[in-house]
């Protein structure tokens, strides 16, 4: 049972992070896309954000089960650090992508400024995800 949970946890981590890399080349294409093509790209962004969110639910649930079954205490530095970064990323994700994507659908907004914000958000969120991944793989004893 434990090894299956580890597998589910690892796959959900890949599904949470992987699709964001598809969005990187899309950022450049969003600069010139119009009409249906623009909406198609924005729908892809929205889909990746939702997919990551739902995979994150599986990731957290499987992680909590692994903690419980493996008798890992909350005070373990890499677990505590992961949860701190996780909660910060949840607050960030709630404000970083959906409002910007909604504004990009409206023609009266400055597209270049919104694309810069979307790009910054994407790279910052990837960095945060990699910090969590590093904490879980390397398991540093910070204190």
Q: Care to describe what's here?
A:
It is a single chain. This protein has 143 residues and is mainly alpha-helical. The protein has 6 helices and no strands. Helix 1 (2-17) runs antiparallel to helix 3, helix 2 (20-30) packs antiparallel against helix 3 (35-70) and helix 4 runs antiparallel to helix 6 (111-138). The longest helix has 36 residues, at 35-70. 13% of the residues are buried. The chain crosses the membrane at residues 6-27, 78-101, 122-142. This is DUF2269 family protein. It comes from Paenibacillus oleatilyticus. Keywords: Membrane, Transmembrane, Transmembrane helix.
Tell me the total number of β-strands.
Answer: 0
Structural class by SSE content: mainly alpha
Radius of gyration equals 17 Å
Poorly predicted runs are none
* Mean of residue pLDDT values: 91
What distance lies between the first and last C-alpha atoms, to the nearest angstrom?
31 Å
Percent helix among the residues? over 70%
List the total number of helices.
Answer: 6
Beta-sheet strand percentage? under 5%
What is the general shape?
A: elongated
Order of helices and strands: HHHHHH
Largest sheet: none
């Amino acid at each position: 049972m434990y090894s299956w949970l580890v597998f589910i946890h690892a796959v959900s981590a890949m599904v949470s992070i992987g699709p964001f890399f598809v969005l990187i080349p899309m950022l450049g294409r969003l600069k010139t896309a119009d009409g249906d093509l623009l909406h198609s790209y924005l729908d892809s962004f929205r889909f990746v954000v939702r997919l990551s969110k739902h995979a994150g639910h599986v990731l957290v649930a499987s992680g909590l089960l692994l903690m419980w079954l493996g008798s890992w205490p909350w005070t373990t530095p890499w677990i505590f650090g992961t949860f701190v970064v996780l909660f910060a990323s949840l607050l960030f994700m709630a404000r970083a992508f959906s409002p910007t994507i909604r504004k990009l659908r409206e023609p009266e907004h400055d597209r270049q400024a919104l694309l810069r914000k979307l790009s910054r958000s994407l790279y910052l969120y990837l960095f945060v995800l990699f910090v969590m991944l590093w904490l879980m793989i390397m398991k540093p004893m910070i204190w």
